[in-house]
Write a structure and sequence with these properties.
Layout: E1 19-25, E2 35-42, H1 44-50, H2 57-74, E3 82-89, E4 93-103, E5 108-117, H3 130-134, E6 137-144, E7 152-157, H4 163-174, E8 179-187, E9 194-203, H5 219-229, H6 233-237, H7 243-251, E10 256-258, E11 262-266, H8 272-279, H9 284-290, E12 296-299, E13 306-309
């Protein structure tokens, strides 16, 4: 029989995919939550982004997981701006970029992504881990709130074998806090498309000066990491299991509270007028060198949209 849900977890059948579900856990704390988390579930959005490219299977899997991880990390933002998750390496996949713009004070998100890779380097079926595909490199997280604010960027070396291990190291190294992350992706047996999911837990400080990293004696932290690990890939990717119901299965005894989900959609920020302004900054002779058969062709790496310009029309009168 299906589990009996509390009122806050009912009436959510219309919210299954392409969203970030924020939540927190009291986890034994008397006042306020002890842990905060986000659960991201991607369905059609993943295929909308990947469908603009012709990636080999291992690259599609890596990009799918990067989209879910990037959205989960961006879910902490509560402003209008741009969050960029980037990994660069010396392996067959040299670059993965996930670019996320937030709107409505962080209540809605627009995602785009692309990867650079060498086809000849992805021939071994055993190249499954992120480490195998990316090799040695670094992870960068960038937050840009606009022209009137200072841009923040965190940069760390890739440590571990998977994207979740890379990110957990980032939080320990750059943020001095522990983060528990589970990440997965896979092909849907019915639609044949890619699905991806990510869940993340972090400790919540009681006071501003409280150290956030956990240790072996932190029973609530360890207990909830164990509970989170009981979730399976099939459950995380199940198109018929809503995020709220999945969280209830894991944490219903931990004082679970869910907040309003944040909606995700695919989309690109490339702009014809912006490209014109960029091209007009180039010298005339360079514009002519870029042209082929009298036209300049510019292809957006994110959405593969092709823009054609006449070099003469770009000259400023």
């Amino acid at each position: 029989m299906p589990e009996e849900l509390e009122p806050q977890f009912r009436n959510d059948s219309f919210l299954f995919d392409d969203l970030i579900q924020p939540f927190n856990l009291k986890a034994g704390r008397q006042e306020g939550p002890a842990l905060s988390g986000r659960f991201t579930k991607l369905g059609n959005l993943t295929n909308e982004v990947i469908g603009k490219h012709k990636y080999p299977g291992p690259v599609s899997k890596l990009v799918s997981e990067s989209l879910a991880l990037g959205a989960t990390l961006a879910g902490a933002l509560k402003f209008d701006g741009v969050f960029t998750f980037q990994i660069q390496g010396d392996g067959p996949v040299s670059l993965v970029v996930v670019d996320i713009s937030t709107k409505d004070e962080g209540n809605s998100f627009q995602l785009r992504s692309y990867a650079q890779y060498q086809s000849e380097g992805i021939v071994n079926p055993d190249l499954n881990s992120a480490r195998d595909l990316l090799g040695k490199g670094y992870m960068a997280l960038t937050v840009d709130q606009g022209s009137n604010t200072e841009r923040y960027q965190g940069l760390v070396e890739l440590v571990g074998d998977s994207l979740d291990e890379f990110t957990q190291h980032y939080f320990k190294q750059s943020q001095q806090m522990d983060a528990a992350i589970m990440l997965c992706s896979g092909m849907d047996k019915v639609s044949g498309g890619w699905r991806a999911s990510c869940i993340m837990l972090q400790r919540v400080a009681e006071e501003n000066h409280e150290k956030l990293s956990s240790n072996d004696t932190d029973d609530p932290w360890r207990r909830n990491m164990i509970l989170m690990a009981t979730g399976t890939t099939n459950e995380m990717l199940d198109p018929d299991l809503s995020p709220k119901r999945y969280l209830y299965r894991l944490f219903h005894e931990e004082g679970l509270r869910v907040m309003s989900p944040r909606l995700l959609r695919s989309g690109c920020r490339c702009n014809k007028d912006r490209l014109v302004r960029m091209l007009r900054q180039l010298p005339k002779d360079e514009l002519l060198e870029l042209s082929d058969n009298g036209m300049i062709e510019v292809t957006c790496e994110f959405c593969s949209e092709v823009y054609l310009y006449n070099p003469i029309s770009l000259e400023v009168s």
